[in-house]
Model the fold of this input.
Amino acid sequence: MKRKCLATCCSVIGEHGIRVFVKGCIGLSNPSQLSFFFPASVLSNSSTSTIKKKKKKLWKHISLLSSNQKQRMDLEKYFLKDFDVDNKNPSEEALKRWRSAATIVKNRRRRFRMVADLVKRSEAEKKKLKIQEKIRVALYVQKAALQFIDAGSRAEYTLSDEAREAGFGIHPDELASIVRGHDIKGLKFHRGVEGIARKVSVSLDDGVHESDIPVRQKIYGINRYTEKPPRTFLMFVWDALQDLTLIILMVCAVVSIGVGLATEGWPAGMYDGMGILLSIILVVMVTAISDYKQSLQFMDLDREKKKISIQVTRDGKRQKVSIYDLVVGDIVHLSIGDQVPADGIFMSGHSLVIDESSLSGESEPVNIYDEKPFLLSGTKVQDGSGKMLVTTVGMRTEWGKLMETLNEGGDDETPLQVKLNGVATIIGKIGLSFAVVTFLVLAIRFLVEKAIHNEFTHWSSTDAITLIDYFAIAVTIIVVAVPEGLPLAVTLSLAFAMKKLMNDRALVRHLSACETMGSASCICTDKTGTLTTNHMVVNKIWICRKITDIKTKEDDGIFHLETTERALNILLQAIFQNTGSEVVKDKEGKNAILGTPTETALLEFGLLLGGDFEAHRKEFKIITVEPFNSVRKKMSVLVALPEGGMRAFCKGASELVLGMCDKVIDDNGEPVPLSERKFRDVTDIINDFASEALRTLCLAFKDLNDSSDEKKIPDNGYTLISVVGIKDPVRPGVKEAVQTCLAAGITVRMVTGDNINTAKAIARECGILTSDGEAVEGPEFRNMSPDDMKRIIPKLQVMARSLPLDKHTLVTQLRNTFGEVVAVTGDGTNDAPALHEADIGLAMGIAGTEVAKENADVIVLDDNFSTIVNVTKWGRSVYINIQKFVQFQLTVNIVALVINFVSACISGSAPLTAVQLLWVNMIMDTLGALALATEPPNDALMKRPPVRRGDRFITKVMWRNIIGQSVYQLIVLGLLNFDGKQLLQLSGSDATDVLKTVIFNSFVFCQVFNEINSREMEKINIFRGMFNSWLFLGVMVATVVFQVIIVEFLGTFASTVPLSWHLWLLSILIGAISMPIAVVIKCIPVKEDTAKPKQHDGYEALSSGPELA
Done:
């Protein structure tokens, strides 16, 4: 059989039958997959020939599906082929392609205000590369040259009297040049870090005093960078005035006023032209106010994005402060994933490795130690920890100069913005054609009438005004026909959603993420802190072969562990020495712990056992530290013992640390060999703890003699001290949130570094792991063949003991092989690749490092899975709201174009004047977007499947509603236009004016009621939630009130006359009838190509049974 459908098949045989997976059909959204199910009951009685026939039918079915899908997509793809960009990191070629394709644009400044300026971006990139080159020269060439410069011949800096009086002994520029140039000789000239500390008047133990901060900011500067001033309201007014059609209408209005004054005198000659000018002013002001409010929302979000906190020592206490509050002399504590917030000098630390690529462009990480102590602002801590003395802040740093270029060019536009630019362009071309034809028809008809009446050679100013009116009508048709508001409505909707999400504890860093999240079909989530509360406490401990539940304190506030003093002492040493956290005193003098939740739980347990953190830390000298990270999955420390010798402590993933041990402490606290039986016993303890959803850690130590390799932490030969079970309860509402995701066709997968039994227990509690789901460990997953991965991933629900690389591999497979739209959470530095690879990267706001946040699209400020579901709901809301707005606007477009064109062709005049069309344009553009694009989400959004890649934006349901409403409005308005006087029994000199006013009034009320209809595209009840949307109600009320004012009081300018109450009632009734019409239209069945609900294995279910075979 000759097949046009190039596909690969695989089958999974189960007890109920065979499921065939088909991947890669031409014409289907790429990459694509289908699943077919053949029940066992059908196959059991089938012969070989029957099965072959079924196979042929299967291929025929696939080919047919491919053909139908291809035909469905071809038309839309043809028209919008140039308006297709990736949701993340789109290519510059694609960005340039759609810009050049968007030819019909009324106001380029406004239309492209929220899209990236590629020219500025290119210039900024060149500027950035120049600065990076300059930094490289400073780091490598200047550093080498300084070796030959005598310290005595250094440049002289004159310190101001104000600085001397404040107690400072070094000039800000001199201090900046030492660090920027890596001038080690200059540092030694000033007696090292201690000498610099004295000259900036700070204690290396206590840090800066709060009272000194204003003086330091005055002398050495503030830690802020030069930013472009915000755009003022008048700038937005100016942007709105750049609309070409409005400019042409203003010229027409001025000419009309000039000719009118010459012929009709004052004030009658002013009315037509002034009406147009007043309408333009109203449109400009409403547009400018809307755009200005959007810009304020984006400014608020931008400020939130830049909020970074750092830990410092001030007044002898460790505390968190904003990086913008840092001053010269601050003692900053750095750990993995932190951004270095200012230039400074290394004071102390362990294994500190810095990534300087963001500053210098060099990818090779730099080790920081006493002989290489310079730290530059904007670089990232890749590994280790340390303390630094801040020497330079703000624009005196190279990072400050680089920051000026980073925001040039703006953010990339979203796929929906680009697609709607394409829709606007196509409609604009149609509208332009209608406008030209309308003007030609009106003008030719006018000229023919003059010729018939033998007046072709006689021209008056009235004739000139008539032609100007025709031209103004044609231009106004373009105003209405070019839906400039379509792409801008996306920005409005996204700004509204992002502001609301900010209040709901989610910070959207990239506009496209909010939009893409609505299409997410899979969420790969961390466990700790996202599904759980991240408030950890030690719940159980196994030590000296005994399990103890840690529940209550004794009367003296201390928990008495039933163990020997030696075992307790070694346990406290392991807790207090091997930690990256600190116990500090808060303002009330109580103990407070600064550190990760796991470290905090262990330190709290140590204090509960009666341990003294400070005493233990002073007793031992720390030699080397290997901080915990998601790759090592352990933390180790080497300390010098007071009586001589050294001791290494290790804690981390229970199976990993247990594998490093060959001894265990017995009932008396003495080390004894770890036999195979004891090893199995400990493994059983770990599994028992894990099955109770406890996070398990092993603590171990090893004594070393002085002859051991200095600073070398061993990897084996440890003595196991204890197994600790830490309770991290599941967050309230997580199970319901997971069920919401599953109902919405979103598969939730847990990816965690924890023990597989702990992960399974938590996943079951959350409703993630089902009876037919798979749970694997990271090492097993990464060693699978590609075919095994393809087999396991559809059913994979839990991955435990995973590395960041495993998460990256899973995300890549889900996106490329299975065509999923993937959202992934991450908090560590090593999660950055997965966050970058995913369609939507979600960084944790509390537990997340700055590196993770920088690579994320959304920052979940409360680390809560329910917040992620809320982002998904808002993403879907944005998409559906824009669809509602497009449906509403296209209806207005079609009716306004057709009624004016047909009327012009038949009667020689347009029923809607320029002023009236400008008002209609404002209703459907700015006001319509405000009403429909800002509707809050409802729960029903999470009961439908996600929008698939490649789905049509304007659906068949939308076309059904658009065509149905357009036909009704055209019939009613056509009858009024051509036979209205008879139908309404109008007579008298003003009958024509009254009829035109009724047509205008009826047309506006049709749009008002259709705006309400557009709130629901498929459901009958259009009022649900309407009275909770104050913005929608406000727009409706404002539209009706202003319509009354235009008709009753501004007739001179708007070419209307006051109407009687029964004509008002008729206009409202004509509009209101569109609501029952909408009900009838919605009852017309439409075969929509929507995604069917997915099974838990991730595949779409097609028809099954004998009829398919």
